[in-house]
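Q: Hi! First time asking for a complex rather than a single chain. Here are the components, and I think there are two in total. Is that enough to go on?
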Amino acid sequence: MGISENGVFIFSVVVSLLAFGMAAYFYHWVKKQPSSNKRIEEVGGLIKKGANAFLSREYKVLARFAGVATLLILVFLPRPIWMGSPKANILMAASYILGTVFSALAGKIGIIVATIANGKAAEAAKNGIKPSFLVGFRGGAVMGMAVVGASLLGVSIIYMVTKDASSILGFSFGASSLALFAKAGGGIFTKTADISADLVGKVELGIPEDDPRNPAVIADNVGDNVGDVAGMGADLFDSNVAAMAATLVMALGLDKTLGGAANMEMIFCYASLGLLASIIGVLCARMGKKGDPTKALNGSTYITTAIFGVLTAIATWMFDFEWRIWGATIIGLMVGVIIGVASDYFTNDNKKPVRYVANASKSGPAFTILSGVSYGFLSVLPSMIGIGLSALLAYTICAPIGPGYAMFGIGMAAMGMLSIVGMIISNDAYGPIVDNARGLVEMGHLGDKALEITDELDSAGNTVKAVTKGFAIGAAGLTIISLLGAFMSEANIAAAEQGLMDKITGFDIMNPLVFFGLLVGAAIPAVFSAMLMLGVDKNAQRMVAEIHRQFKEIVGLAEGKEGVVPEYDKCIDIATVGALRELVPAGLMAIGVTLLVGFIGGVQAVGGFLAGNIISGLLLALFMSNAGGLWDNAKKYVEAGNEGGKGSDAHKSAVVGDTVGDPFKDTAGPSINTQVTVVSLVASIMAALFISFHLFG
Amino acid sequence: MGISENGVFIFSVVVSLLAFGMAAYFYHWVKKQPSSNKRIEEVGGLIKKGANAFLSREYKVLARFAGVATLLILVFLPRPIWMGSPKANILMAASYILGTVFSALAGKIGIIVATIANGKAAEAAKNGIKPSFLVGFRGGAVMGMAVVGASLLGVSIIYMVTKDASSILGFSFGASSLALFAKAGGGIFTKTADISADLVGKVELGIPEDDPRNPAVIADNVGDNVGDVAGMGADLFDSNVAAMAATLVMALGLDKTLGGAANMEMIFCYASLGLLASIIGVLCARMGKKGDPTKALNGSTYITTAIFGVLTAIATWMFDFEWRIWGATIIGLMVGVIIGVASDYFTNDNKKPVRYVANASKSGPAFTILSGVSYGFLSVLPSMIGIGLSALLAYTICAPIGPGYAMFGIGMAAMGMLSIVGMIISNDAYGPIVDNARGLVEMGHLGDKALEITDELDSAGNTVKAVTKGFAIGAAGLTIISLLGAFMSEANIAAAEQGLMDKITGFDIMNPLVFFGLLVGAAIPAVFSAMLMLGVDKNAQRMVAEIHRQFKEIVGLAEGKEGVVPEYDKCIDIATVGALRELVPAGLMAIGVTLLVGFIGGVQAVGGFLAGNIISGLLLALFMSNAGGLWDNAKKYVEAGNEGGKGSDAHKSAVVGDTVGDPFKDTAGPSINTQVTVVSLVASIMAALFISFHLFG
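A: Yes, that's all I need. Here is the structure of the assembled complex.
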């Protein structure tokens, strides 16, 4: 039995709408949960206001950037307007705009519900851990459903309307450029606030976390939302769209006589089934009798994985899809799980690395750093091997189908890894919601029992985060490998159009143009990370100065006098303005160097550049995320009373490690993915221009 | 006018012997400098004894390793004995042994003179800065001359006797495997001792650096010698031999009709002229009237560079060598200088990065680390671009000569960069000698003036070190690119022998075997560094425990009672045993993974593996060396009275940065070069086996 293109299109749209329906249902469910505490409402309102203020300013900056990008696309892309047809340029520009809008909407929806769910979860904690968990999780699920629904719907519409690779890439580039802002900007914001609040609050004044006297406390909570909810959502929206875009572009170039036409149907069918599996998984998520939130979160991930495997097998059998491609998809999914487990090993406080670092902390902060950096370096090995091996296996399995299918198989492996992304996002967005809830319990004086409960929920969020982060990096890794395939495919189309006979069959490392590209490409993620971290550093210095000013000038603040409130919005303002100021040069640097390499060395240099970028990007992203997670948990492990416990020398050292780890894991590390994706898309979009204009070769 | 192969051979031997003569002359000059202070002689004797004890134990471990390697070569390499001729295997094994012996000898000579020169330089400091400088510099020059003389002589003999690529690679592999032990083992030793001495001495007890009560103080001084003198010498011996080996192997595969025969003469001629230029440069090194030791060191480097350029131009004109290749050589040399200048910018305390990190230290150690990591990441960009661009330019210049010449040009650029290595080593070995001299001045109570002088000399050593380190990494970068060429050349010879018709023309990134190799190869330098740093960490913990024991158990030690001496050798013992125990697994891991990748994915996977290894190796080596140098100088900058000066919070933070930076810059960073070279040579040597036996592809 076959399936028609229209049939699968309708199916995709229906599943997307179902996801939106679920999101709406969860949203209303969360919203109607009781709230009675005035203080929580007040503080929750401040967080909401701060998050929205940041988002609108960020979107304003983005709108300007997108405006310029749209103009450039209209004139130059996919072909300069004097060389191609204006229609193609208009379509691509429209797709680009749609990509930014969809991504922005998904982020906005996530923020709206997260800033409601945090307060509701705090109040629910009074009634026990199960209801509180459910509020947090369903709040996160709104984001998960909205993001994946939007990406599937967007790609489906663009493909059905245009059937054109450039437009799909344009949509993906729109999503990416927003993700770059959202992830990097949010990352700078959240760590600026977090570090500054801790530095003055915990270290200098010795007041507890989330103490309402701290002028940066609201900014810190806002940061959780804009960095971890909106930023992470945009990031995974981006990866998901990019994975679909890469496979679609490759599928468009495949030989139709080999059944290439069915590949389109398969891509949409699998993507829709992945979303369906996530919906079922989200609905199943409940805490068991023993009440372990970590198990509940991981359990529903495994359920989703299994459902996806079964559903796609049935579809492959029913619609006569190619089993080899199904195999590649499942390999991707499995490797995702393996990478998650490896990340967990290096960041779980029951395992050796965290214990070792906690113990080393007794000798001073230098040893916390050294041992953490060492384990962070070690942690890259399993994931790098896993990604490499899965690409190799997917390629080998799919190569016999026909020319071009091997690379397509890698793309499908990436899709497989991302198939359960709806579930992943739900788990991930749960984290900042319960983290916020913990703060609100403290500020609303809801009592020790509620604090204990939200502490446990928060800790589960941190543990699961390591797994989902590993997953996100792995998926991005495979996606960008397939984007390399998409780049070659685009370059060949452009070369044929320009009447060049030599087909590009690959990028030879022994070609010095490629090698030059490799070296420069490898340097970019390091430089990009450095710029973001220096941004956090500079911004935090500004905010610390502001906090000092407030404690000095606002009478009664330090003593906690009744009715004296710090000027929270000043801190939010600093974080916002600084984040946007610091991230723009980093983003422009990455894009600028790509253009430079392309116009210097042409397509071959860009091929090397992308590969170097991918390799060093993966290396640094894994290193930074895992080292950061490790330090965070080592600190928590010490705070739980080990190696001397709170206030000991080991604790002081562990806090230093955690402070270093914060921008590693929440600013630079996860932004690298987005940087690499953006650069890959820029390269694909510009391929024709690089062929026309270059200095060497 | 032409030059005969015999003529150039005689020239090489004469210049090598001249270098040995210079080494002997300087050695005797240093030795006959006056020494009168009993205390210095005593302590100097202890350092000498410790260094020799470490070396003999290290060489014992190495002898065992080399024994096993020799056996394996005899049976399997260049072809399994049942497939090739035993003669080739015997020649290769003999060359391998010669490589280890020459390298060991050069290291040993360096240690002998360095452990004499330190005391003489200390005493000379009583007479002023100029004589003290000259003793330090000439002591270092013994090492420089011996290392470069030995490498030129060794390669010349092997080539003239065998004219066989495998034997040359075998010699180079011998040098590399020793360098791996010397650099990594010495690196672990020196930082174990340094960190432990500081941690207990300066931090816990508040006694000054080099205080004789500290049981680790002699081990610390021994460490300077075995890590920075012997280790660094072996490292540069290795790079120098590898660069010559790679170009010779490529030259053997070049088309003779295009004048390929003249390439051999040119390689030896240029190498000899480089050594000659270094000899002249070393003789010219003197402090000017203003008495600035940094200027004296850098000045003689620039003189050497200029002399080399002129001499090779004359030779090229006289002997009708190819001017394009001369151009490639000079490009390499120029880029070396540029990389040195860039390293200097990031580590010089007159420049922004060091100042920024020193200032950030006021906010706590986490900011020292974050800003240092950030600048370390930024620092990789100019060097990566420089190396990539020089490879591109050398390739482009030499490509018109004929097939194979493009890659050969890159090899010659590496040779160009390494041409002045005699000068570089002299400058580098100067550092630990005057560092030791400073310690001896303190322990021998030679007075404040002498202390001031040796402080200034030491500081110049640190500044110049940044430049020479950048140089060493850049040279290693180009060398390993040309080793990639040598690998391909060897793989093709083996493929032809085995009757495979398809010539390997390159390594295509889009081939998943290559990509798999790229990813795994990129992970290895990170894992290798992590293992070394964890080694330092574990080892330092053992030594700290021992120091604590001594202060507790030896009565009167802490109080500094007359005649009470700590058990220095216990500490030296711990550092020695630990260093050797920790480095072996790291070295075996790197070699093991190379074999694994080769037997899994064959030659294509290995090609990718080497490229990944090179790229991430360069990235991490540059990052770690520069960040480490930056932290070191930021600490010194604060200690000079800035940002609060000694004892301030900024100082405490800067000390943490320096402690983290120590294993970065002296253990892991510089060992990565050697790791990459070893792996590249293993790959070249094993190429035939990888072609015969592999799982995929």
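A: Chain A has one domain: 5-692. Let me know if you'd like any chain examined more closely.
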